[in-house]
């Protein structure tokens, strides 16, 4: 693979994001199986989508995603709390 070439999974993700608005109009709250930049199946569960994708396509070449508005399905937010404390000996 070329250094700047996108993986098949990245291509499927780009397709979903670029077409999300139209996909939500047709498939809101459904699970999509996307391969070769097209919707290959619509499911009620991610498990069903996974087994269908596994039967038809090579691993890493298809995307399973819940079709919703917003970016919650493909964005992860991390929050951390840093606490700095001084170690104090138990016996002074």
| Helical fraction | 25-40%
Oligomer: single chain
Class computed from helices, strands and strand pairing: alpha+beta
| CA radius of gyration | 20 Å
Q: What is the residue-mean pLDDT, rounded to a whole number?
A: 88
The number of helical elements comes to 2
User: In sequence order, what are the helices and strands, one letter per element?
Assistant: HEEHE
Q: Main beta sheet, described?
A: 3 strands, antiparallel
Number of strands: 3
End-to-end C-alpha gap: 62 Å
Widest sheet: strand order? 2-1-3
Low-pLDDT residue intervals, each spanning 5 or more residues: none
Sum up the overall morphology in one term: globular
**β-sheet strand percentage:** 15-25%
Question: What can you tell me about this protein's structure?
Answer:
The protein has helices spanning 8-27, 46-56, and strands at residues 31-35, 38-43, 62-66. A hairpin with a 2-residue loop joins strand 1 (31-35) and strand 2. It is built from two helices and three strands, in the order αββαβ. It has 92 residues and is α+β, with helices and mostly antiparallel strands. The N and C termini lie far apart (62 Å). It has a three-stranded antiparallel beta sheet.
């Amino acid at each position: 693979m070329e250094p700047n070439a996108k993986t098949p999974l990245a291509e499927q993700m780009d397709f979903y994001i670029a077409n999300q608005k139209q996909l939500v109009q047709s498939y809101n709250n459904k699970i999509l199986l996307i391969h070769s930049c097209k919707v290959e199946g619509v499911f009620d569960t991610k498990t069903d989508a996974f087994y269908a994708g596994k039967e038809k396509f090579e691993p890493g070449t298809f995307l399973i995603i819940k079709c919703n508005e917003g970016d919650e399905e493909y964005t992860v937010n991390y929050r951390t709390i840093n606490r700095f404390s001084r170690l104090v000996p138990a016996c002074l």
